[in-house]
C-alpha cells in the first residue's frame, strides 16, 4: 500500500469520528463502510451484513484456511470536548474509545488485500455494539459467521498509555471479565419537611453505595484483582422533595469467574440487607456480561517475537487490563490475540478529550498487512 493511500485512511477515520453511533444503531457507519468497500476491486470480495455489522471475505488463491481481523464500530454516550475541527456531529455521542481508528485500520488492511489476495481466505469483521449490549456473542452464532468462521482471529485496541510505534500485549489473559450492574431502589417520596412519612432513597442509595465499596476491600483476596465501580446514580427531582426511588449503575471487573461470582453473591446479600434495613424494594439487573479476553499463548508469543524483529514496532509485554472487550467471546472459540496499539494521549479511553495520535493508523495497517502476508499459507 502506498504511503499516500495509507495516510488517506486518516481522512477515513476523521469522517467516521464525526458520525459516532451507539450499539446496534450504527446505520450511518455501516452505510459509510459499505460504500467504501463497494469502491474496492470486487473480484475477490464477498460481503454480508448482520444487523449493523459487516462481514467481508477476501477469497484466497488457495483458500485452505481463513484468517480473521476484527474492528468494532460503536461510539459512546458522551459529549465531545476535543480540539478537533472534525468533532462529532451527533450531540451527546462520541468515538471516545477509538473505534473510529479501529474501523479505519480495518478498511486499510482490507483495501490492500482486495487488490492483493493471499493464499488463505481473509475475513474482515466489522462488529457493532462492543460498548454494550455486546455484538460479538450474537454475531458468532449467526449462519453468516459460522459459514466463514476463521481459523485464527486478530484484533487491536488503541492504547493511550503507549507511545506511537509501540504495541503492547501478552500471552494469556489481556482483558477482564465484566458485568454491568443496575440496582433499582423503591421507597416512598414525600415533602422535605415530613421525613418521617417518607422513605428517603437518597439516604438508602448512599448507604448502599458505601457498602458496595466494602466488597473488594473486605471480601476479596487482596491477591486477586477486582473492581466495582458505580458510574451513575440517579435520584430525585427537586431540593425540597424526598425522592422515593433511586437507580445505581455500575460495572464489575475481575480476572477470574470465581471472583466475579463471589462479588455478585455479595452484591445480592447487601442489596437484600438494604431492603430489610431500609424497608424498601430493591432489584438487581446484571446487564451485559463479557468474558475475559484470553490471548492464545503460542500465537501471541510468536506474533510478539515477529513484530519486534520484522514488524517495525517496539513490542511491550504488558500486564492485564481491567477493561472489558467482547472480543473475548471470539477468542473463546477461535485461537488468536488482541494487542494495544500505542496512540500516546494524556486522556484515557472514554474521556471527552481523547485525541489519539493518528500516525498510529498507517503503522498498524503496515504491521498487519505484513503479518497476514507472512501467515497466509
Ligand atoms: C475497552 C473498553 O473500554 N471496553 C468497555 C467495554 C464495556 C463493558 C461493559 N459494557 C461494562 O461496562 O461492564 C469497558 O468499559 O471496559
UniProtKB/TrEMBL annotation:
| BP term (GO), one | lysine biosynthetic process via diaminopimelate
Q: Which Pfam families match?
A: M20_dimer, Peptidase_M20
Q: Does the keyword Hydrolase apply?
A: yes
Reactions that this protein is recorded to catalyse: N-acetyl-(2S,6S)-2,6-diaminopimelate + H2O = (2S,6S)-2,6-diaminopimelate + acetate
Molecular function in Gene Ontology? metal ion binding; N-acetyldiaminopimelate deacetylase activity
Binding of Mn(2+): at which residues? Answer: 97, 99, 131, 157, 350
Q: What is its EC number?
A: 3.5.1.47
Which key words tag this protein in UniProt? Amino-acid biosynthesis, Diaminopimelate biosynthesis, Hydrolase, Lysine biosynthesis, Manganese, Metal-binding
Q: Which residues form a coiled coil?
A: none
- Identify which residues the record assigns to the active site: 72, 131
Q: Which cofactor does it need?
A: Mn(2+)
InterPro entries for the chain? AcetylDAP_deacetylase (IPR023905), Amidohydrolase (IPR017439), Bact_exopeptidase_dim_dom (IPR036264), Peptidase_M20 (IPR002933), Peptidase_M20_dimer (IPR011650)
Q: Where in the numbering of this chain does the Peptidase M20 dimerisation domain appear?
A: 185-270
Q: What class of enzyme is it?
A: hydrolase
| NCBIfam families named in the record | amidohydrolases (TIGR01891)
The family note in this entry says: Belongs to the peptidase M20A family. N-acetyldiaminopimelate deacetylase subfamily.
Q: Tell me the function of this protein.
A: Catalyzes the conversion of N-acetyl-diaminopimelate to diaminopimelate and acetate.
- The protein here is known as N-acetyldiaminopimelate deacetylase
Tell me the organism's taxonomic lineage: Bacteria, Bacillati, Bacillota, Bacilli, Bacillales
Amino acid at each position: 500500500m502506498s504511503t499516500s493511500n495509507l495516510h488517506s485512511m486518516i481522512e477515513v477515520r476523521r469522517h467516521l469520528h464525526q458520525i459516532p453511533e451507539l450499539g446496534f444503531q450504527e446505520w450511518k457507519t455501516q452505510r459509510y463502510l459499505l460504500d467504501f468497500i463497494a469502491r474496492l476491486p470486487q473480484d475477490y470480495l464477498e460481503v454480508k451484513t448482520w444487523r449493523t455489522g459487516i462481514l467481508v471475505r477476501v477469497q484466497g488463491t488457495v483458500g485452505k484456511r481463513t484468517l480473521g481481523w476484527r474492528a468494532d464500530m460503536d461510539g459512546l454516550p458522551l459529549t465531545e470536548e476535543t480540539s478537533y475541527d472534525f468533532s462529532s456531529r451527533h450531540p451527546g455521542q462520541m468515538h471516545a474509545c477509538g473505534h473510529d481508528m479501529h474501523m479505519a485500520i480495518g478498511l486499510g488492511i482490507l483495501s490492500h488485500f482486495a487488490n492483493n489476495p493471499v493464499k488463505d481466505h481473509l475475513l474482515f469483521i466489522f462488529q457493532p455494539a462492543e460498548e454494550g449490549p455486546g455484538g460479538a456473542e450474537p454475531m458468532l452464532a449467526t449462519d453468516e459467521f459460522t459459514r466463514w468462521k476463521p481459523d485464527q482471529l486478530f484484533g487491536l485496541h488503541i492504547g493511550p498509555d503507549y507511545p506511537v510505534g509501540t504495541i503492547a500485549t501478552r500471552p494469556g489473559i489481556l482483558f477482564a471479565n465484566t458485568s454491568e450492574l443496575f440496582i433499582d431502589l423503591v421507597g416512598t417520596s414525600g415533602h422535605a419537611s415530613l421525613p418521617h412519612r417518607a422513605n428517603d432513597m437518597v439516604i438508602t442509595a448512599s448507604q448502599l453505595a458505601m457498602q458496595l465499596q466494602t466488597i473488594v476491600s473486605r471480601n476479596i483476596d487482596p491477591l486477586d484483582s477486582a473492581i466495582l465501580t458505580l458510574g451513575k446514580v440517579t435520584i430525585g427531582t427537586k431540593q425540597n422533595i424526598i425522592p422515593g426511588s433511586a437507580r445505581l449503575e455500575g460495572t464489575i471487573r475481575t480476572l477470574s469467574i470465581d471472583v466475579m461470582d463471589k462479588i455478585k453473591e455479595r452484591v445480592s446479600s447487601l442489596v437484600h440487607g438494604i431492603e430489610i434495613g431500609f424497608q424498601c424494594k430493591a432489584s438487581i439487573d446484571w446487564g451485559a456480561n463479557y468474558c475475559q479476553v484470553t490471548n492464545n499463548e503460542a500465537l501471541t508469543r510468536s506474533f510478539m517475537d515477529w513484530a519486534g524483529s520484522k514488524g517495525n514496532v517496539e513490542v511491550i509485554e504488558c500486564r492485564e487490563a481491567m477493561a472489558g472487550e467482547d472480543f473475548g467471546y471470539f477468542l473463546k472459540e477461535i485461537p488468536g490475540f488482541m494487542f494495544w496499539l500505542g496512540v500516546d494521549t494524556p486522556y484515557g479511553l472514554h474521556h471527552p478529550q481523547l485525541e489519539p495520535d493518528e500516525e498510529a493508523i498507517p503503522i498498524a495497517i503496515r504491521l498487519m498487512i505484513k503479518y497476514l502476508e507472512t501467515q497466509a499459507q
